[in-house]
UniProtKB/TrEMBL annotation:
<keyword id="KW-0671">Queuosine biosynthesis</keyword>
<keyword id="KW-0819">tRNA processing</keyword>
<feature type="binding site">
    <location>
        <position position="256"/>
    </location>
    <ligand>
        <name>[4Fe-4S] cluster 1</name>
    </ligand>
</feature>
<keyword id="KW-0408">Iron</keyword>
<feature type="binding site">
    <location>
        <position position="142"/>
    </location>
    <ligand>
        <name>cob(II)alamin</name>
    </ligand>
</feature>
<comment type="pathway">
    <text>tRNA modification; tRNA-queuosine biosynthesis.</text>
</comment>
<feature type="binding site">
    <location>
        <position position="222"/>
    </location>
    <ligand>
        <name>[4Fe-4S] cluster 2</name>
    </ligand>
</feature>
<comment type="function">
    <text>Catalyzes the conversion of epoxyqueuosine (oQ) to queuosine (Q), which is a hypermodified base found in the wobble positions of tRNA(Asp), tRNA(Asn), tRNA(His) and tRNA(Tyr).</text>
</comment>
<feature type="binding site">
    <location>
        <position position="206"/>
    </location>
    <ligand>
        <name>[4Fe-4S] cluster 2</name>
    </ligand>
</feature>
<dbReference type="GO" id="GO:0031419">
    <property type="term" value="F:cobalamin binding"/>
</dbReference>
<dbReference type="GO" id="GO:0052693">
    <property type="term" value="F:epoxyqueuosine reductase activity"/>
</dbReference>
<dbReference type="InterPro" id="IPR017896">
    <property type="entry name" value="4Fe4S_Fe-S-bd"/>
</dbReference>
<comment type="similarity">
    <text>Belongs to the QueG family.</text>
</comment>
<feature type="domain" description="4Fe-4S ferredoxin-type">
    <location>
        <begin position="184"/>
        <end position="216"/>
    </location>
</feature>
<feature type="binding site">
    <location>
        <position position="249"/>
    </location>
    <ligand>
        <name>[4Fe-4S] cluster 2</name>
    </ligand>
</feature>
<comment type="subunit">
    <text>Monomer.</text>
</comment>
<keyword id="KW-0170">Cobalt</keyword>
Amino acid sequence: MADIWDQLALQIKDWGQEIGFAQIGIADIDLNHTKDHYLEWIKQGFHGEMHYMVKHGSRRYQPDELVPYTIRIISARLNYFPHSHNSEAVLKDDQKAFISRYALGRDYHKVMRAKLKKLSDKIQKEAHKTLDQSFEFRLFTDSAPVMEVELAEKSGLGWRGKHTLLINKEHGSWFFLGEIYINLPLPVDKKVENHCGTCTSCMDVCPTKAIVGPYKLDARKCISYLTIEHKSSIPLEYRKQIGNRVYGCDDCQLYCPWNKFGQMTKEDDFKVRHGLDDIELVECFLWTEAEFIKYMEGSAILRIGYEQWLRNIAIGLGNAKTSETIVNALKVRLSEASPLVKEHISWALAQHNFHMN
């Protein structure tokens, strides 16, 4: 019987390649080694307003509590880095809006889930045909209490970097992860060695010093958290460091030495939409809500909503070089803005020595 499971594991990896995944790995469900670190992270409040990190309790590090029949987890890696305008050039141009490269195309949740479903269908068909065993499964793509980096690391897809993201020796870190929880006793893959060594590039370059120690992220300081997960006013102490980053932050990846091996995605769905890789702050600040919804349809950015979008861009405009165009754009938005956006516009105008009476 062992040969049958070995053969199926090889088939699953081949199918994954056919479907478009960069790599497939298989892990068992033992995550007990993560429990203490995770609970300490929560205790220190590093999760900020992400209350969902707490409410699911032990299901995060005990996969069979989340999905009772689970004995193995298939992890999948999908490259996303698009052919886009140079990231560092956009970050240096304070008139432009920098958007994290993962969000320039179609919402990855939809793309990854569709591919995982295709892979699951193939496994189910094979299990029914040759194994005389029912195949029970559940798919996840950043959508439930799943420790995806730890599971991907256990399944041999890479190692956790000091910035807490997964790094692959041949491909860097520009990829998404997804999982299939299953009830089949497949052979598991071996963990790979950590190759971060003494490098601290990701920690040194972080604009807000959110990586407070190796493998330890204080999300409350992280620009990705502040511009996406944080729904209220952005703390004053981080606004200057945010610069022109209006959705997410890629700095820790841009300066990771392993990303010189990063590969462009082959997925059409991840191609840049609406010129978002090189767009003016003023242009996207003056979009109406209808235009925002139109341009962001099918994008992960739509999830933050129009108000949060304006809040983020107001900070970018406050950090830009003073010009009549920028000041006028901020003033135009001020009268109709929500209290949250108005606060950030007022701050931005003050950066240009324009104070409201």
